[in-house]
Amino acid sequence: TGFAMLEAAYGRPMNSANIMMKNSMDLFIGAIAFYFFGYTIAFGVSTSRSGSSTSSYATTAATIDSGALAGRVSFVAYLVLSAAVTGVVYPLVVQWAWGGGWLQELGYTDFAGSSIVHMVGAISALVSVCICGPRIGRFPEYRAWKGPLRWLFAERNPSEFYRMPKLEVEKAVYSPIKACSNPVQLLFGTFLLLVGFLAFNPASTLSTTSNADLVSARTTVVTLLSASSGAMACVAASIVTTRSMVMTVPDLINAVLGGLVASCAGCNVIPPLLSMFVGFVGGLLALAVPPCLERLQIDDAVGAVAVHGPPGAWGVLCVPLFARPNCQSELAGLVFGGGEAALRLLGVQALGLVSLGSFAAASTYLIVLGIDLFGGFRCSRATELIGLDFIEHRIDNGNLKFESDKSEIETHSPIRDCLMHRVKMTVSPTKAYAEGEKKTAETGGAADGTHVAGNGGGGGEESAPATAVAVQQRSTGRASTHTVSDAFGVKEAPADVPDGMDGVVPVLSGGKAAGAAAGASAEELAGEVDALKATVADLSRQLSMVMSGLRATDSGGAWVLGGGHAEGANRETAHQMLLNEANMPLENTRL
After folding, report:
1. Distance between CA 492 and CA 377 in Å, rounded?
2. Residue 422: DSSP 8-state
3. Contact assessment for residue 226 and residue 264, using Cβ atoms and an 8 Å cutoff
4. Using only C-alpha atoms, what is the Rg of the chain?
5. Closest CA to 516 of 562, 462, 583
6. How far is residue 374's CA from residue 452's CA, in Å, rounded to a whole number?
């Protein structure tokens, strides 16, 4: 819950529900995956470690990916990644270090998962982010991977894809990226995380007998002091860097979480006083990493890599340095006379960090590339600009004008087929609309080759050849035109379209159809209108839910089927919801 609240507070409002959904599914999918596969891989059938406890650790490792990838990863693709991490990647890591594997035999020590949970999750997130790329507009001068790195991370998009939108229709729906969208929610999520860590670390004792209750009490104190010292690290960093006491909410949160992550590995053996130093350094590391990632143009949406990666590794290295023997452990660090044994443990800890990190990177790399190859890992450009809440979960939070901005950006996405005639079409926004507007300007309001239908059903003036459709505006007594065949690139004509109408996408306008081939007689035009009406009637019987969305307005506004839009007084009433890239089900499509 804490991670979900925190990530949603970092992200843009149009993606908040998507983030909450991903964190919820982390828990549900993770529990099932760990039950069927993870537990057996990690521990086999004979172990005293609680399966339910470690399943929560598994979902924690998976949700780190969710934060780093927020705002641009496909929902289904993320669920596959989450299932793979909780069901395979994390259990194998646990088997090495906690399940009797080779690292545990060497003496590797990580009490509550600084590396096994947090660092592994951070490296997995880093690899995923490098393959996925940054959010649109995150880096205005972004440079895509070049040379061998382009091949390594399977980069297929040009640099311009990730930069600020340039088309007017994209600018209309684009929501600028902020460091924090909801600071109050961010702080509330951090409080929930603090409570979680205060249960997470002490619960790693797995018992309260045989002096385990005393160790549990120590871990609680160490955890809280580490978090508090992380906050003090933020204060110190603010004084040094800004020469004032100005602290931003994200910086404070990252420093606190960095201290908490660093405390996990040795909270059962490190004395409370030294734990403050561990948390302080962990907080500084969490603050130092984000600028480095930004310089490399790596977009970690919530700072998950910075919070869970370096602080986790630091916490593991602190065990052979600051451990002190207690009622449950005889481990002694270098500070308390550990000598040669402590130096050996330091080497083992370093080896474990390299091994776990390398495995996490390699396994995540293969999983993400597989997802991207077979189904696509990143969501479409239109989906990202409109918002994952709207596309993935049918939620319109009202922050954009639905009838105009969203419908326009959808017309710039490839459309699979026209619901009216099953006409397959593609869209070239940078070319088609520019040419259409140029033609309109040159001809004084009518594009070349436009048949204009006059008011009241009277005749119009024809010009050859007819490649555009007139939209009649009865409320103003004027006829306006909109070029559609060029703009939408009709590639094949439907079988039921009459001869001479191959290049025309029909327009409904108060029950009248406007537009015909050049030189068509009145009788031919009437026949074509009758054929169009018959097609509409047949479609209305098959797709009643879709056709119920088509309703004429008092002022004679018009809708263009297949993703087009009418220009005129009632342009904002056209509900254009043909989302090819979002794969919207037919029954949920609104015209």
Report:
1. 31
2. -
3. no
4. 30
5. 462
6. 47
Give, rounded to a whole angstrom, the gap between the first and last alpha carbons of the chain: 37
User: What is the spatial distance between Cα 387 and Cα 186, in angstroms, rounded to a whole number?
Assistant: 20
User: Cα(69)–Cα(219) distance, rounded to whole angstroms?
Assistant: 32
- At a CB cut-off of 8 Å and minimum separation 6, what does 442 contact? 448
Q: Are 493 and 478 in contact (CB under 8 A)?
A: no
As a whole number of angstroms, the distance between CA 467 and CA 518 comes to: 9
Give per-residue pLDDT as tens, 104-129: 999 999 999 999 999 999 999 999 99
Average of pLDDT values for 548-575?
35
Decide: 409 and 165 in contact? Cβ < 8 Å. no
518: left (phi over 0), alpha (psi -120 to 50) or beta: beta
Task: Tell the burial category of 489 from Cβ atoms under 10 Å away from its Cβ (0-12, 13-18, 19+).
Answer: middle
Secondary structure (3-state) at 297: coil
Region 25-47: mean pLDDT is 85
pLDDT per position as a tens digit, 197-256:
998 898 888 777 777 788 888 999 999 999 999 999 999 999 998 887 888 999 999 999
What residues are paired with 507 via a beta bridge? 560
* Residue in 265, 248, 340, 369 with CA at minimum distance from that of residue 308: 265
Cα Dmax for the chain: 103
Q: Are 353 and 79 in contact (CB under 8 A)?
A: no
Cβ atoms within 10 Å of 325's Cβ, excluding its own? 14
From CA 525, how far away is CA 357, in angstroms rounded?
70
Q: Decide: 229 and 277 in contact? Cβ < 8 Å.
A: yes
* CA atoms of 38 and 86, how far apart (whole Å): 7
Q: Which amino acid is at 42?
A: A
Sheet with 450-451, edge to edge strand ranges: 450-451, 468-473, 478-483
More confident residue, 322 or 207: 322
Contact in structure between 213 and 47 (CB atoms under 8 Å): no
